[in-house]
Amino acid sequence: MIRQTRYENKKVLVLGLALSGFHAAKLLLKLGAFVTVNDAKELENNPDAQELVASGIRVIAGYHPVELLDESFAYIIKNPGIPYSNPMLERATELAIPILTEVELAAEVMEADLIGVTGTNGKTTTTTMIHELLDYKRPAGKAYKAGNIGIPAAAIAQEATKDDDIVMELSSFQLMGIDEMHPSIAVITNITEAHIDYHGTRDAYVEAKWRITENQTENDYLILNWDQEELRELSKNTKAKIVPFSRKEEIKNGAYLKDDMIYFNEASVMPISDIHVPGLHNIENALAAIAVAKLKGIENDIIHEALSQFGGVKHRIQFVKEINGRSFYNDSKSTNIVATKTALESFPNNEIILLAGGLDRGNSFDELIPYLDKVKAMILFGETKEKLQETAEKAAIKIIKLTENVETAVAESYRISEKEDVILLSPACASWDQYKNFEVRGDLYIHAVQELKAD
């Protein structure tokens, strides 16, 4: 860890605890700051806050007192989810107090090489793919993943050494709070429209994403989706070397798809048939990941071997198992209709048995009808099973079954399936009618699949 003196003997406010705030506070204490943590959750129900108090950090819990800012803080490290319209942050802006996020703090003490990944879609999968490629049969050091993927960057930054790499998923919320963060390789998977409620306008959202490259120099690399005209235009506004990737055209000095093969710098790397996470979007994710791997000097045979074993991010169109010719996929994270559309589009050449249902939010599911043309059967559970049944009938689905839960749905789907079928859990609903979260629902699905017997 680099011994950073920026915060030494300075008063720093950590706004919002959660996992990132907890590790930011502990790191700041180690760096010699006078740390105050403020969180809206009551102290007695917050074991992390209690641990910080025991270590000598002041914690103010239960509310956000704007008058706290009268104490002349030098910096604020804020939770990314807290909007800048929060009265505390509005007052901090008036007082010209720098507002940073935990990833900036982590980058300042990091010895390892930093690869940053952002984009509207595909961030988590691309980050995970890059991590797998950089860590697979690595001769020295280690690759870590951190950031928006759910692993606090401030914790990983202290552990990693100069022989390591840190692959960091970065959200627009996090990137708004950087100052000196400087990835040697930055990746933007794509940019569409998202989080307008937070950023106010699409232009502000795009500007936040583009901050990933603002501190890059001519010695750094920016990997961009060349199939998006917007990113081609934005590429004029960076000092970094551009490394494009494309699913649609051959390009020089980058990664592209041609005749079902992935190429980098006009040399073949691997066939897409050996990428076992389905969907065109995952080919794009693989192109970006391969570009990073090649810039890091990884040989094609290692890339091919590592990506051939990649099963996807858990609960996101995750390949679980093949049983007697049936392929089971866990997409429990699809808690809305849009996500389930994407999942269905990922299997253009298979007959699908769709497992769906969950919390009733009052909406219809008829938006799914144009995407059900490859669905041969629907197994439905949860509060929305009757609504989904109505949609299935409108789509002329031949087999519709109502069942109790995700586990009974697995047994029923296998019973009616045939070889080469895809059995896909993609609920199009939140899980809270029956399960604590989508992870629990997905884990129960995986367990039920593993219990099936191939007879």
TrEMBL record:
Residues 315-429 form the Mur ligase C-terminal domain. Residues 117-293 form the Mur ligase central domain. Its EC number is 6.3.2.9. GO terms for molecular function: ATP binding; UDP-N-acetylmuramoylalanine-D-glutamate ligase activity. Keywords: ATP-binding, Cell cycle, Cell division, Cell shape, Cell wall biogenesis/degradation, Cytoplasm, Ligase, Nucleotide-binding, Peptidoglycan synthesis. The keyword Iron does not apply. GO terms for biological process: cell division; cell wall organization; peptidoglycan biosynthetic process; regulation of cell shape. It is found in: Cytoplasm. It is an enzyme of class 6 (ligase). One of its GO terms (cellular component) is cytoplasm. It catalyses: UDP-N-acetyl-alpha-D-muramoyl-L-alanine + D-glutamate + ATP = UDP-N-acetyl-alpha-D-muramoyl-L-alanyl-D-glutamate + ADP + phosphate + H(+). Cell wall formation. Catalyzes the addition of glutamate to the nucleotide precursor UDP-N-acetylmuramoyl-L-alanine (UMA). Belongs to the MurCDEF family. This is UDP-N-acetylmuramoylalanine--D-glutamate ligase.
